[in-house]
Fold this protein.
Amino acid sequence: MSSTVSVNSSRAQQKVVLIGRPNSGKSLLFNQLTGLQQKVANFPGVTVELKSGSMKELTIVDFPGTYSLHSFSQDEQVAIDAIYQALDSDETGLIVCVLDASRLERSLVFGLQVQALAKKHNKGFVFAINMIDDALRFGHEIDVKGLSEELGSPVFALSAKTLIGISEFQQALPDLVKNNQDCIPSRVSESHDDVINRSRQLANHFGMNANVVLKQQNRIDQFLLHNWLGGLAFMTIMFLLFQSIFTWAAPLMDAVESGIGLMAGAVTSILPEGIFNDFLNDAIFGGVGSFLVFVPQIMVLTFIIGLLEDSGYLARAALICHKPLSFFGLSGRSFIPYLSGHACAIPAIMAARTIESPRKRLITMMTIPLMSCSARLPVYALLIAVFIPHQQYLGGLVNLQGMVFFCLYMMGIVTALIVSLVMNKTQFAQNDKSEMPFILELPSYRLPHWKPLMYRVLNSAKYFIKRAAPVIFMVAVVIWFLGYFPVHEGGLENSYLGFIGHYIEPVFAPLGIDWRYGVAILMSFLAREVFVGTLGTLFGIQGADENIAGLAENIQHDGLAFGAGMGLLVFYVIALQCVATVATIRAETGSHKIAWGLVAGYGALAYLMAFLVYNVLS
Amino acid sequence: MLHDTVWELPTKKVAEIVGLQSGLSDAMSNRLKEMGFCGGESIRCIKQCPFNGPKVVELGGAILSIDKEIAQNIKIKM
């Protein structure tokens, strides 16, 4: 057998596949092996797509965590299909099954299933017992040799967190791949019951006493899952999360703002006056620059969500939310997509795959766009700065602008819940009555891994800029040309843009806003943050103020009515203005009708609500 | 003999799992077994969320949260 496979194996079989249960620290191990950072989180089922990275000449592929080879939810089916594909593929040189040292029995159940498959497909197979630092902390040393003999496969004990055993494992991998036919499992469990019994026996013999690990966890849970203290803690954490977006990010935002101001001042003073100077000043610094100011807020939000994920709190939050959310036809598992929807709807919609029930998953996906994503931050921040005074209470702990921010986020969430409730009650969702039950494993509390977390924060900023900057740049340039010509001296009113704007003005007049805001709203159907860039360019051309980054002041001087401003905020809470989100919903649901229906539905609702707010407030 | 189920298990009490109710689908009972709900395992109730919310149990070194539907399908001996 080995002779047929080993032909050309050095070229073909270069792939090392990482498989394991959710939360076995597999993704962190992958990061340590490849140095390539990916999302590492302490919540079961975070990896929904395959990540690959290279280690010397080997390719390492990180598979989504699965509890079993019998799928239960869609993301598991994806993972299981991928595992079977990898087993069939000639490129796969070695399968590494990651076990959790502190939960040996549970991880072995899955490990033994995969081992049997590896044997069936003649693939090399090794076990990597991760998190042995946890075991060592409680004075338990795992008998690697004995366990390896019992399992019939090589076993490595390591810790991806503290790096124990990582370099040994890294050194051993190339040889294991090269001689992969030597590590085809020598004994495997055939039946399901055998797998379960053997896991228990092996864990009893080689594993650690789980009670010690759980003791510390239980103590924290006693507080965080307490009936009312836990609820209070949950509310406090969520409130601080939204407050911090404003307070922590403020100094950074000021820094970016003055940086852009300085740069604009320097550049425009060197260049001779004229069209090109005006273009740089209005379109580049005014348009593109005004949205860069909000990048720090996106980073702070990503940081805090990452912190909650890594620490293990998110699973608790999902548990706390399960009962309240099920009232609206959602599951506790909807909480994580909802929360990450506050950073960006696209990963959130993908994360909804972990919801077992197809119906709840669909409703969750359809309501995620109502979560105030980071693209709305620039719009909220701008309008709040225009209308809400900067006031502090309780010695700076609470500020008024932060509270309004919190209210806007809450409004999005409440709207999402109402929409869910309505969808749940209508015939739309009735075709699938079978309710999938709720099982959730609560991971141990862990300290976050700072390096991957920081990398994620930087990545979020990079991703946001990369995604939005080209669109904003193009819109800014087009808007500037339309607004600057045919005659600059005649002012904005007499430009091409003025004509177009006045043509569409009647549509936006009922909301109390003039044509400039109308143009900005229309442009922001590409992506919401374009709103700020467009207004920045428009006010830049008007030259209301030489201070380019002070767009909020310009709007204040210009005299936008309070009611209209609040109406605009409400509009942005509800409307689905993001081409990328629409594309993602279409891909995940496989339905154009749902995706564009949402754009139309939320658009109409947003318009109606903004109309009501404006008329009530003025 | 009629057994109690995990749903009846009071907070902070330990019981031994007897087995799963017979009405469960294969997929469901396989998954529950894989999660550790097997006969002979001891299970401890850590918390009952208010308003008939999910139960939090300790089982085989892990903390799991299960809703009423599942809890009522796991037979125990107190």
